[in-house]
């Protein structure tokens, strides 16, 4: 058994990490820090964790050195003390956006300021096993993934590997996103009365996750738009492309089957009928699965690539634990093989 | 006062038409037919109509000849008896898809079968005043509009008039749609437990409303995708374009201001801050307004055009009454000038 | 035309008051104050008010003396400056809880501290026309109503007038309430992700509105519980009573018909079939109606009285304007006679 | 390993049973029947079951004799062929309402017709371990539980054991219920547009589950009302009682602690602050837990007992598997010890 501590465990990603660690066969939860909640019970913040022996948040300074440290801090907090954090554990996973990009220049372009610890950018591996498995395996430092980036990446990767989408292709990634993406902090625009039933274009252009997609896919022209909709969880990528090739359903099935063949968490959803013909995050609640699919319009030369994930799982905590499994030499799906909840 | 009858008044569009007619200064509701509900009270089907003297559904055969007849029947029903219907009133508005397209060939391409009464296609005017006002004015036969088409059209028209989008431009219209688009009939996939919190790609390619957009805009390459989300009302068009021109905010403001200058129901929403920076159907509930806006990314040469409507109003019943006002020489906004409901 | 100003117009009740005043035949909106938002446009806070000439919030000190002043301030703010406010207008309506109770002792019992201006308690009339019409008519100072109290009062009043419920009867008022009851301020527990799909017992005992019910009804044993549910608007009172009398449907119909006979906004909903057999706030969105009904179980001697309202309308702004109409000698339903929105 | 088959696996309870059996350490899913869906994949009906080897529905006649048969058929279907079903397996659990009541007379009173196989009523044990553990253990035939009954029973049992509530006490059980209680079949009143944001009194009096509560608790005066609210899962019981005794928080804590001491799935939720002071089904999604609590108003002599469950789990499939564990001599919480999903 390896022990895991979480720095910054008051948010939704922290809550999911604890659920996953509690259910993991070879991990033990050691400490969870929150400066604001230190001394309070975990289950008062995370009501799904009420069972078992009550456990309390601690101060950061009370996290002892251990096997693995996962940082679930707000963006910008991990980088400030990265030397401290990396001294606290053999392996570190940072779920924030601080170490996702390889290039300090791209970081500055998208985040609007210089990276505080640029030397560390190259030392962190981007924690999306589907694109980066061999580098995550045995890595000491792994970065988490952006949820919208992950949905887009998983929609695009099969087409890129098949050569259908090339570095110069323009792709439009239109993402629908649930309210948990905004985190747990109180905002007026996030109040139920304001947020219920919205179709709110919160980032029609300029979303930072586009940088992650361009890095992972090698594409130069990723156009991302995010619309907040009424769901708590879920990121749904509708990725629009125009293709020159003459495709057909059979070849597309082949391309997608090749892609998922050895992937424990990526599945094809492409049915001819019924309500679940295409990927939908609603069917994935609480799981680490990413469902991918497509819709092809031969007349228009148009291929729409689809990917659905649970933003807190495959888009955050789930990919982190999947990466942790690779880092530690565990089965890649250890502690992540459960079935989702339907309906909800 | 002119009298209006409604054929096929059991659905949501029918219910909205009654609300609008009841509140209209120069219209009186005469008869509402429903073969299935004849003899039952309107308010048993449409609970918002409970006030005032109770009124009943009648059989179609009991609709007397009158000034105006609005058809709110399922697609395919109006066309079957169009000679009968046009004999029942001086002016006829058909809210279904039966008479929206000018070309029988395009109809066949999108609907999969020959049009039953092709001669009538040219006699109906497409009832979107923002594109077709001069033809709707004084017309005898007007067709309703598709809700997703209307959101897309209103997003695109300012850019087309300004020459930014041209007939050969590829545009991707990614629509988010509420559950009332599916109508009131019972389906398993529409049950609350199945439909709550979905991000369901119900038409990633091949949606029929693309034909309406190409007809109205003159564009040749309209790529439409529809995703069902958890809202009862609303159609939100995120229309993605790449533009060659060198635009700026000032010129875009000018383009949009020109477009809305004489439009009673189209408004610009383009704020620098706050939760309501961009159009959102949630802010339009129950109104005939269409809010339009944009987001421009100079670096990427990318312009995202946005439009939000209430699908049952500007996308159906509201545009029908707006057209009726034009047909009858009333003020264009007669009976439609009320304020929406916030929050809800 | 009389002019109306609103002190404290940043919240949901303020937004509804503006909508109602804009649509009122004999009222003109003069000034709306908000210390925080002074200088900003009304529609930036209240997106449904975007149409027409843009108007701005002002500071309180910039509200000129006028005909009517409506206070939509947080609880406790009106009472602090009541002398100032009552000097600003001929007639004053306070929507807060500051002047709802007649007795300083009861106020202290429920609010936990002495009333700051007890002399004013007797000068304010409780603004529920259905119980207090003759005192509201021509009053200078009228208090708004509690939303949960109003649903409970309107459920109970028919039974009290008929002698079925007497001062010593124990009644249990189990209220289901929407999120707009909590107002617009940012709280963690009110965030969409936390508040969606809840059934949250936020006041199983001890809710302050019980005091209003006991005052209005004269009952001594009103037991109120409030459960927050997933709706933006609505207060639904399920009022449980045990009755000794031998009742039947005919006599109950008579009792309810007598009660609503002269009420412009109270309606009976008691159908034998269909989805709308009983009152439901969903059918009342944006209206001033209160729907009342009952369910009687002869075997158990049990009578459940039901009442549904839109908490921001009949439970706040709507009753305020209805009271204003009475105070000013207008038609009681002036500006309030519109139809609601269905579905939503 | 014991094998389990499910008769009638197309509904939500069937889907949950499969999830639980798949995750159970000593159970294997053998066959799942559905006359309508035979030959189709399980995951086409139950999208959360997409992983692993695809499995198909079979016809009832193709269910082989095995260790355990769970009936998840519509009410009235199990009883018709109970001799057949009980011949198919060593142990049978029926999730319907057919065998919940001991008395044919009570059955007739609540269900309106004679029981078809009254001899079997006494052979089935009521499958609520918290009230009936010793009879469920080693039983061959166990009946499932009603979800609303279970929430009410678990709210009341601690108070009954402590003598605070006695057989003659009048208790009012006001239940809030999610849409999954209505099952998966298509109805107009269950469509998303009709069902979203409702507070619908679908059974203000006369709900059948009251019979189950009176049977389990021994009370004579259980007054139940059910209100449908906008949630997919959840049954929340607000149980109103008036008590003569002089209680205090300490004694109540003692009573509740005694009750849950040996219960693996019942937990006390009674916090002094925060959003989660009281039980709320939202915190229990997908779990077999029942959270219970109370609110006591000494002045009014009023005790409100609260219980929250996931209606498809503790209110159906979860209690069934918990009973199965007892019947088979497994650990009572085998396969049920996972953590819920938060937020959702």
Commentary on this structure:
- Chain A has 344 residues and is an alpha/beta fold.
- Chain A folds into two domains: 122 residues, NAD(P)-binding Rossmann-like Domain (Rossmann fold); 163 residues, Dihydrodipicolinate Reductase, domain 2 (2-Layer Sandwich).
- Chain A is built from twelve helices and 13 strands.
- In chain A, strands 8-9-7-10-13-12-11 form a seven-stranded mixed β-sheet. A six-stranded parallel β-sheet of chain A has the order 2-1-3-4-6-5, with helices on one face.
- In chain A, helix 1 crosses helix 12 and helix 8 packs parallel to helix 10.
- Chain A is globular and about 60 Å long.
- The first copy, chain A, starts with a strand and ends in a 16-residue tail after the last helix.
- The model of chain A has no long low-confidence stretch (mean pLDDT 97).
């Amino acid at each position: 058994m390896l022990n895991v501590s979480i720095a910054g465990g008051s948010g939704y990603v922290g809550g999911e990490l604890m659920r996953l660690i509690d259910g993991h066969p070879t991990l033990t939860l050691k400490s969870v820090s929150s400066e604001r909640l230190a001394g309070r019970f975990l289950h008062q913040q995370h009501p799904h964790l009420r069972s078992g022996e009550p456990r309390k948040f601690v101060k950061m300074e009370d996290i002892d050195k251990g096997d693995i440290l996962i940082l679930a801090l707000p963006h910008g907090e991990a980088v400030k003390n990265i030397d401290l954090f990396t001294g606290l554990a053999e392996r570190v996973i940072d779920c924030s956006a601080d170490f996702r990009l390889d290039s300090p220049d791209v970081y500055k372009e998208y985040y609007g300021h210089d990276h505080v610890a640029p030397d560390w950018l190259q030392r962190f591996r981007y924690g999306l096993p589907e694109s980066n498995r061999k580098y995550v395996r045995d890595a000491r430092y792994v970065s988490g993934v952006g949820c919208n980036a992950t949905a887009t990446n998983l929609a695009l990767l099969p087409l890129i590997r098949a050569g259908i989408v090339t570095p110069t292709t323009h792709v439009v990634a239109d993402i629908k996103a649930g309210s948990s993406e905004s985190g747990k902090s109180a905002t007026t625009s996030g109040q139920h009365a304001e947020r219920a039933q919205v179709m709110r274009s919160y980032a029609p252009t300029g979303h930072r996750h586009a940088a992650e997609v361009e890095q992972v896919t090698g594409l130069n022209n990723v156009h991302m738009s995010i619309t907040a909709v009424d769901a708590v969880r879920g990121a749904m990528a509708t990725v629009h492309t125009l293709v020159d090739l003459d495709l057909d359903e059979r070849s597309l099935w082949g391309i997608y089957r090749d892609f998922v063949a050895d992937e424990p968490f990526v599945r094809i959803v492409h049915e001819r009928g019924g309500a679940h013909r295409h990927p939908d995050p609603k069917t994935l609640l609480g799981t680490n699965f990413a469902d991918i699919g497509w819709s092809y319009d031969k007349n228009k030369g148009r291929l729409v690539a689809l990917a659905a994930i649970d933003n807190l799982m495959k888009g955050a905590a789930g990919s982190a634990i999947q990466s942790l499994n690779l880092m530690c030499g565990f089965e890649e799906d250890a502690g992540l093989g459960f079935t989702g909840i339907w309906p909800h």
